[in-house]
Amino acid sequence: MTELPPCPQCKSTYTYEMADLLVCPECGHEWNPKEIDAPETTFEVKDSNGNILQNGDTVVTIKNLPVRGSSQSIKAGTKVKNIKLVDSDHNIDCKIDGFGAMALKSEFVKKA
Known about the structure:
- 0% of the residues lie in helices and 32% in strands.
- The protein is an all-beta fold and 112 residues long.
- The radius of gyration is 21 Å and the shape is elongated.
């Protein structure tokens, strides 16, 4: 028995064949496995100026950012070194001196 690829939409492993198509029983997606090339794995994060960010970059905050659960805020112009990009709403993970581990949105930083 051959191993069928997971659903490209919901990543379910319960796919089955129906004629020339593959079908996902969980989300109902149907696709032709011959038409799908390699899945898009390019993950791109841009700063407030449109520059593409990469893991390990240094960025600077462009406005005061309130920190939930703290009376302090991250001041505009704070330099953040060695960022890590993640695929979520807050797409930058980093450590900020005096605050610790943080998650930032890329639209509030610019590349240094």
